[in-house]
Write a structure and sequence with these properties.
By secondary structure, the chain is α/β, with parallel strands linked by helices. It folds into 2 domains: about 300 residues, TIM Barrel (Alpha-Beta Barrel), CATH 3.20.20; about 100 residues, Immunoglobulin-like. The chain is built from 14 helices and 18 strands. α7 runs parallel beside α9 and α12 packs parallel to α14. The protein binds ligand G3I. InterPro entries: CBD2, CBM2/CBM3_carb-bd_dom_sf, CBM2_carb-bd_dom_sf, CBM2_CS, GH, GH10, GH10_AS, GH10_dom.
Amino acid sequence: MRRALTAVLGAATLLLAVLVAGAPPASAASTLKEAAAAKGIVFGTAAAQSHMGESAYVSTLNREFNQLTPENEMKWETTEPSRNSFNYGAADQLVGHAQSQGMAVRGHTLVWHSQLPDWVEGISSRTELLDVMRNHISNVAGHFRGDIDYWDVVNEAFQDGSGARRDTVFQRVIGDDYIEEAFRAARAADPGAELCYNDYNIDGRNAKSDAVYAMVQDFKRRGVPIDCVGLQAHLIVGSLPGDIQANIQRFADLGVNVYITELDIRMQTPPNSQKLAQQASDYRAVTSACVAVAACKGITVWGVTDKYSWVPDVFEGEGAALLFDDDYNKKPAYDATLEALGGDPGDPDDPGDGSVTCTYTRTAQWNNGFNGQVTITAGSSAVSSWTAVLTMNSGQDIQALWNGTPTRNGNVVTVKPAGWNSNLAAGASASFGFTASAPNGNVSDPALACSTP
Ligand code: G3I
């Protein structure tokens, strides 16, 4: 959300100004997004609409991240499954969620050889494919115009090893200039979004990143509209390129921003303490490399939890690549990343604020209204406060709410504790209830997310 992002960065600037002015330093941030904001960058994750019904998934997403990348929902096979017939349902829901939480959004991705429908693969005329590609970009980027902070305009167009162009239908049928034509179409469709080229194995210097570097240099020289490069950073524990920071810096020196767009660091499973410690050190190194270069504006991990990572599906016997384990527990890599962002993970033995989960139950309904109850439950450690966010459906309006303190913003109702039900011991629960009107008989369940504090 462009405006929200500006607000976050504005707050970060204010914080820095206060520090420079010599005021006592505020206490160090305890979440990734707060620590990143204090550094003037975003910390995001890929998210999948199919998991948004799981309260621990949503509460972790909302608590830790201020940028969201739809994992699959904006890809060509989903947005234009048949020619000139567009589908934005799941992507709209994710963008709406991001906006309700003040998260920036990365659009992923407009032109990619994978998850591309067969009808595109079958085109053999340059004029026709150029037309189809421009039409796709103009519709998709046009639909989300104003809502996307950065677009991955073209994804994975180069081969590993040689740095030659990847053999795709776009390369074969249109030729080398398909990439610049895609960027021109994206700029026309959404002039306010940053336009990125995104790829994997370009995190350090090698033949492939040299080829991308040469392309960006050429685009800048000729005025092709490109604003940023995305280093995906799908990495392996203990095998990081040693020159990530230098590589980020050389792209920055071309006058583009750099983003770490799909960070995960996989290992042979099962994890053990030694592998988790190495992973923590690797996450710290990648995060520090970004923080050290002013033009590196954000880090995005490729998923909220190991439970839903793409890695085990593709690399047999590998996984555990993310910051939260299958049960949403913070891994050593989480603490290392937070520290590299200048945050403070706190004392792991201190039963401070942990995480909460929440559930919704419709307890009564009648012709034009219903009662609902929300129960918030602390995880394995105590929490000192909680927040529940209800997104009401069309026509639904909360008329009374008890055992909680509501604030309404349109159809989004944020509920804080009543006071006496703020502190929850590990595993303990608090509940609040409400009565809502439903004049059109729509008693369907509101969306629910909860977090601490
Ligand atoms: O939605 C169907 C489901 O209906 C079906 O039952 C199931 C059976 O396999 O497949 C589901 O689709 C899967 C889809 O993810 C949604 O979960 C596809 O098979 C699966 O191939 C697809 O994988 C995605 C992959 O891109 C495709 O290339 C991953 O989730 C996604 O994380 C991954 O992301 C890519 C980035 O876009 C680009 N960079 C690399 C990165 C990792 O591969």
